[in-house]
Every structure is written in structure tokens, then in C-alpha cells.
Amino acid sequence: MHSYINIRSPLLRSTILPLSLRRYITPRYTPTAVASLSISIPDSELSARGFSINYSTTNLNPSALNDVFASVGFPRRDTARLNLALSHSSGSLVWLSRTTDPTKPVAFARATGDGVFNAVVWDVVVDPSYQGIGLGKAVMERVIADLREKGIVNIALYAEPRVISFYRPLGFIPDPDGIKGMVYSRRNLQKKKR
After folding, report:
1. Helix, strand, or coil here: 160?
2. N-acetyltransferase domain: which residues (predicted)?
3. Per-residue confidence (pLDDT) for residue 37, from 0 to 100
């Protein structure tokens, strides 16, 4: 579902998703849109539904996160490197767990960036058992709100075509200036050397 954004990322399938399938999208915010940015499922409702909201990697089981990545088609990541990547997610990080299993994520999203102007959202995933009940939206709204509170105005992500419609209601659109995202590819360089 929404977990198909891999920006390595979005879920950043940059190393496994062909360039022709990637789309660079960025949110379009006006002062009014930012002021009206709200959380559709309040913390109290998530809690009443048996979910805990987490804003740090404390208690996050990286192996369980890898399981969620694999369940949505993302590649498993080396645990040590995944821990390092998570420690660099200073932009924003939000994950949900069941209150009965507080170290196992059921929804996850993170962003990295320069902390001032720009951020990129990565690894938006929802365990397939929990898709379709608003958890992807819940983590994304909180990541966006956190970034906006920090004054970050340029928030980007890469999305597979089939999930672009998930991001549109959150304020993301194809870049209005027609800018296309590009990914460094060693594979293309190797082809040119032949």
C-alpha cells in the first residue's frame, strides 16, 4: 500500500526501481494549507485503538522493521547499516506499534535533510496486516507536521506510480516546475565504460 516508497530510500527503491517508474513529487503548501494541516487520527484515538506513537528509535526493533520492509517488497537491509541510517534520521521519525508489542513497528516513516530548508521522506511502510486503516496517513501527517514545525518548506519523496494517489491528499504533487528527480547509478556508469 503506502509502503512502496523507498528513498534510500520511501522506501526508496532507488537501487531496485527502474528510473522510468520513479516520480519526484513535492508538497505544495500555501500559508493557509500549512495552518490547516491537521492530524486526521488524533493520538488519543490511536491509543484507544491499541497503538503507541513513537518519535525515536528507542525500543524500535530493527529486525522487526526489516520484516515490515520485506513484507511490502522492500529489500532487507543489513541490521548494522539500518541502525546507522536510523541514527541519521534527524529530520523526523515516526512509527506506530501495538501497545501489546511495543518494539515491533506496524507503520513507519522517516525523513532526513539539512534541518533548515529541505527534507526527503524515506521508508514509508505499513505492515500489510494493518493497511487500509489510516496508519500510513497517521505517520505521514506527523512527519510532515514535525518538519513544518521546524520551518522546513521543501519536503520531497519518491513514489511508485501506484501510490502517488496516497500522497496527493497529504499535499504532495509532481514538482510544479517540472523538475525530475535523478538518482546516481553506478550501473549506468559501468555500461558507458564498456
Report:
1. coil
2. 55-190
3. 59
Question: What's this model's pTM, rounded to 2 decimal places?
Answer: 0.77
Question: Which stretches does DSSP call E strand in 8-89?
Answer: 23-27, 51-54
pLDDT, mean over the chain:
81
Count other Cβ atoms within 10 Å, centred on residue 108. Answer: 29
53 CB-contact burial (10 Å; exposed 0-12 / middle 13-18 / buried 19+) = middle
Q: Is 97 left (phi over 0), alpha (psi -120 to 50) or beta?
A: beta
* Residues ≥6 apart with Cβ < 8 Å to 55: 93, 94, 142, 146
Active-site residue set: 167
User: Which tens digits make up the pLDDT trace of 82-121?
Assistant: 999 998 887 799 999 999 999 999 999 999 999 999 999 9
132 burial (CB, 10 Å; 0-12 / 13-18 / 19+) is exposed
Does the pLDDT value for residue 17 go beyond 60? no
Q: Which of 135, 133, 142, 127 is nearest to 65 (CA)?
A: 127
